Structure formats: structure tokens, C-alpha cells
Amino acid sequence: MHSSLAEHARCLYGDEYRPAPECGLEHREHYFVEELTFADADSILAMLRELCPQVVDGRLPVWVRNLAYRLVLLQRPDEPALMRQAAENLRLHGPDWDHIAADLAKRADALEAG
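Above: the chain's sequence. Below: its structure in C-alpha cell form.
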């Protein structure tokens, strides 16, 4: 078993900043998705920070990033900073989600306004 969600992702997708660890485990994407699905928000955010520290970089597939942010926001629905971070990710990785990014930014503004 991997020691963290970030390590599991690194084994599966690689890492721009350091080599993938030596690992004898079977790497199938659905195992990672299962782990991601039930991970707590801190573990997911740690993975994103480790593997995509500049948001525009990293080898995590865009769909994994989108799912990760969605899962974090479901666990922490009232954190404007996380909403803005998710919105930035959506804007940077395709115009298909710009309307969702705009909605997240509006919700973040509304939460901060009280």
C-alpha cells in the first residue's frame, strides 16, 4: 500500500519535480480513483500541492484535478479560498468549465460578504 495519496498518484502519473518511487505494487487507475474518492480533504490538497504546485504544471490528468477539487469542495463547502483555487484550476484547463469557475468565484464572494 502507498503511504499517501500523493505517492499513489506519483507512481501512476509521474512527477515533474522528483522521480517516481520504486514500487512493486500493481498500478491501475481505478485503484487510485477509489482511494481518491474516499480520501479526506487534507490528503487531496496535499496531493495537489505536491504534484501541481504551480497549478499549470504537473502530470496529473486534468480530469483527476477536477475530481479532486470537486471532492474537496464537497467536504469543505464553505471555504472561499478553496473555491477560488478550484475556479483557477478550471479556468486554466479548458474553457468548457469557465461557467462553473465563474459560479465558484461568485459563491466565494457571497460567502466572504456574509
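The CA atoms of residues 16 and 81 lie 25 Å apart.
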